[in-house]
Amino acid sequence: SQPPYTVTVFTLSAFNDTMSHRVTIFSLSLLCYSLILFINISLVVIIILDENLHEPMYILLCVSCVNGLYGTSSFYPKFLFDLLSSSQVVSYGECLCQAFAMYSFVCSDTSILTVMAYDRYLAICRPLQYRSVMTKKRLSQLVCISWLTPFCIFSINILLTTRLTFCGTDIQRLFCVNWLIVKLACPGTDTFVNNVFAMTTLSIYTGHLLFVVWTYIYVVKTCVKSKKDRAKFMQTCVPHLISVLTFFVIVVSDLMHMRFTSKDSPQSFQNFVAVAVLFFPPIMNPLLYGFKLNKIRSRILTLVHVRQR
Fold first, then answer.
1. φ/ψ of residue 188, rounded to 5
2. Which of 108, 194, 230, 278 lies in the 20 to 30 Å Cα band around 29?
3. Whole-angstrom distance, CA of residue 114 vs CA of residue 63
4. CB under 8 Å to 182, separation ≥6 — which residues?
5. In angstroms, rounded to a whole number, what is the distance separating the alpha carbons of residues 145 and 163?
6. Predicted confidence (pLDDT) per residue in 5-21, tens digit
7. Please, are residues 117 and 244 in contact by the beta-carbon 8 Å criterion?
8. Under a CB-based contact definition with an 8 Å cutoff, are residues 7 and 169 in contact?
9. CB crowding 195-206: b at 16 or more within 10 Å, else e
10. What is the pTM of this model?
11. 260 or 162: which leads in pLDDT
12. CB 9, CB 92: distance < 8 Å
């Protein structure tokens, strides 16, 4: 085994398989990131400027878009720079910051989707109590919890990582992931606390997803009884349900792949699984809601019509 040493940089070795197609990948990634920026910023601006959209469902969509911008900005600029660079390295501090941003983005997204599910549950299953429960103050509290909880959890996670000594610098990813950084710790280094904290965090956010399932069981039960509720379900819940299922499949696939898949699987496939969470949700969610929710769709069509005139 290698002796421990002071780590100043990590190497992102997953780039080895992409460099032969760097121009194509760079062009597609730049187009993708530009599209993410345009769609999400447009939706955020539309919701902020239109007072008719200052309702919980639209405000939560706005928060989701802001979170998408936060997560993708922690990956795409560095990724695009690395594609043009001769060596794909990242400093120790930058690597920990990126790992923090990636994890907090994913967990904040999980929390926001959970609050959206709670909002839809109240709107459909408890319509008479909706206004009194989902107040501006309650909504603000839920949004703050959705952001601050992951930030606090992963601040502790990263602090636990900083106490480790490392015997390797090779991260088999396109970006830094805390679990893979911990794996580089020297043999014999105590990573028990890191693993326990990681499993506790995973349990907390698995609980979020179970809560979403619970809310939708009640929503579907209620909608079966009423034609009006079925129409509301199709309009407001279907986009959210597609978002949740897509997000869940992508995140679980990535976790399973990272922890259990053989290293012999093609690097290009590993890279696709890794970046899927930074591609599909940030593009798909705004488009899904933008076209499905009447108020947002009509607002977009009005803006397009005004520009054409």
1. 95, -15
2. 108
3. 13
4. 161, 164, 191, 194, 195, 198
5. 28
6. 577 889 998 887 777 78
7. yes
8. yes
9. eeebeebeeebe
10. 0.90
11. 162
12. yes
Name 74's Cβ contacts closer than 8 Å, sequence gap at least 6.
97, 98, 101, 102, 105
* Nearest alpha carbon to residue 194 among 149, 148, 156, 150: 156
Number of H helices, E strands in the chain: 13, 3
**What's the CA gap between 154 and 245, in Å, rounded?**
24
148's tokens: 């601050």
CA distance 25 to 30: 8
- The yes-or-no verdict on residue 297 having pLDDT over 80 is no
Which string of DSSP letters, residue by residue, matches 197-241? Answer: HHHHHHHHHHHHHHHHHHHHHHHHHHHHH-HHHHHHIIIIIHHHH
Both structure tokens of 226: 């009423």
90 forms beta bridges with: 10
Correct CATH for 9-307 of 3.40.109.40, 1.20.1070.10, 3.30.450.20, 3.30.450.40: 1.20.1070.10
The per-residue DSSP string of 132-145 comes to: HHS-HHHHHHHHHH
pLDDT of residue 307: 57
Here the tokens at position 116 are: 């959206």
